[in-house]
Amino acid sequence: MTKRINAVISLALVAIFVLAACEKSASKPPLATPTAAGANSTPQPSGLQVLDEMGTKTSMYVQTQVAAGIFTPAPTTDMSQATPTPTPQGALATPGPATVAPVVPVPSLTPITGNTPAPVIVFASPTPGHPASYTLHSGEFAYCIARRFDVNPGALMSLNGLSSGEILQPGMTLNIPTSGSFPGTRALQVHPVQYTVAVNDTFYTIACAFGDVDPAAIAAANGMAITAPLTTGQILNIP
Question: Which CATH number belongs to the domain containing residue 156 in this structure?
């Protein structure tokens, strides 16, 4: 029994010494070994060198795994071989919503008050029956007026104090007899018909050429004013 107790005590003492030695060695840093003067110290690797070394080892490891068929590398795209999409020459970029100009409504045109309206054409009415008087126009003569109003030409000249063969001036006013009729055929040309205007023609000269047609009736049949000028070669409807 005594031997066992001594053995246990011995083991406990050894354990205490061992633990004390360990604490002493851990609490004090190891002394640096002096370097002889002129000797080169071994440089410590930098952080970049460590990373580069790790990258090299990783790359070698991956290559080994790929060669063994464990890893399958993903396909890579060579950007130098990529063909850029050509842009058509002169093509314009489509503007975004922010660059589109707003549509400005065009204001409606408002008529300006005070403008001169288009002249209204007033058509002269044919002289009805036997007027009391009539004012001559250029190209008209006594027999022309007698045919038109169906009166005796001799009575017309006598009423106005005219002699045979006398030339009547435009603007002269003739008194028209209230009785009698024209002796003979009043119409000098067949009508209704179309007539081609000659040089110096007027509605009055054309009416005299047809005999029994009123110049105002010719103007109205062609939708024209009695004072409208005529053009050579113009076609007129004769009523």
Answer: 3.10.350.10
